Amino acid sequence: MLARRLTSSVLVLVGVIVSSFVALRLVPGDPIATMLSRASLADPAFVARFRAEYGLDEPLPIQLVAWLGHVLTGDLGTSIVSGEPVAELIWRRLLATLLLGGAAAVIAFPGGILWGIAAARSRGVLGGFLGFQPLLGLTIPPFSIGLVLIFVFAVELKVLPSSGMMSKLDGGSPGDVLAHLVLPAVTLAIYPAAMIARITQAGLQEVTAEDYVRTARAIGIPSRRITYRHALPNALLPVITAAGVLLGYLLAGAVFVESVFNWPGLGTLIVRAVLNRDYPIVQACSIVVAVAYVSLSLGADLLYMRVDPRIRFQGSTSP
């Protein structure tokens, strides 16, 4: 099973790399027009030399092979627009994205589990309300939630900053960064928290119908103890399965959230690179996001195999 999972992960990475490379070049526009002045563009010989310098005069398959060769040696290229090494640009922005994604994960996973437990244990109107709320978190786009939070907490209440990672006055003190982090982290955390709440609620409702839970109730074990000691560990197994995908979402979803809050991470870097047709940056960011997504998904599968050893033998037993 592990070998199949590793093979599929490699195939996914190859597919993402090739598709992003091809798709970017199918988008109308020319990055050379972004870089050069009108006077330079009027000189065909100069444009041809400039295009050859970046390898843009070669056929698409040759460009792909050449780029993959550089990537395998650790060379992610140079930004067409700024001339800076792409690896340095990504490293600076990656730290900000990891900070945002980590904060969102800290909010989403415990919050979603507690939300699901409350929805599963509640009855009547409160139970219906708590069970319905995750649907809103799953259907409302993150950028809409972000705009609402900005209006309420930054514009009306003026208790939190609306954009950026730090203010000019405080110069990036921990308290200043934390204040800027709250709104984008909450915005990014709502979708995975709602998903985890739905999974936890459904898992608890299914597990509490099992014979061992009914037996525990019959012998007088308190309901709270049954929930947390017996039902919840089994109900959280599907959460572990979804954890890799949800953690990947925190990285990929940061593209939209960072754009709304002008957070200086990979999201804003990718958006600007796409608008400027900065091929090296977009391609390198695609690799970083794909590797992170696949690695997190694979890590969640390995954790699931560790928690439930029966999974290791699925597909390997003979009839």
Account of the protein in words:
By secondary structure, the chain is an all-alpha fold. Mean pLDDT is 81; it is low at 313-319. The chain has two domains: 2-72, no CATH class; 88-313, MetI-like (MetI-like fold), CATH 1.10.3720.10. The chain contains 15 helices and no strands. Helices cover 76% and strands 0% of the residues.
Helix count, DSSP H or I runs of 4 or more residues: 15
Share of residues in helices: over 70%
Domain module count: 2
The biggest beta sheet is recorded as: none
CATH class descriptor name of the largest domain = Mainly Alpha
> Strand share of the residues?
under 5%
Which residues sit in consecutive blocks of at least 5 with pLDDT less than 50?
A: 313-319
Principal-axes shape call: globular
Q: Give the H and E element order.
A: HHHHHHHHHHHHHHH
Rg value? 24 Å
CATH superfamily of the largest domain: MetI-like
The end-to-end distance, rounded to whole angstroms, is 17 Å
Search tags:
mainly alpha; MetI-like fold
Give me a quick take on this structure:
76% of the residues lie in helices and 0% in strands.
Topology of helices and strands:
Blueprint: H1 2-26, H2 31-35, H3 38-41, H4 44-53, H5 60-72, H6 86-121, H7 124-139, H8 142-156, H9 174-207, H10 211-218, H11 223-235, H12 237-252, H13 254-261, H14 266-275, H15 279-307
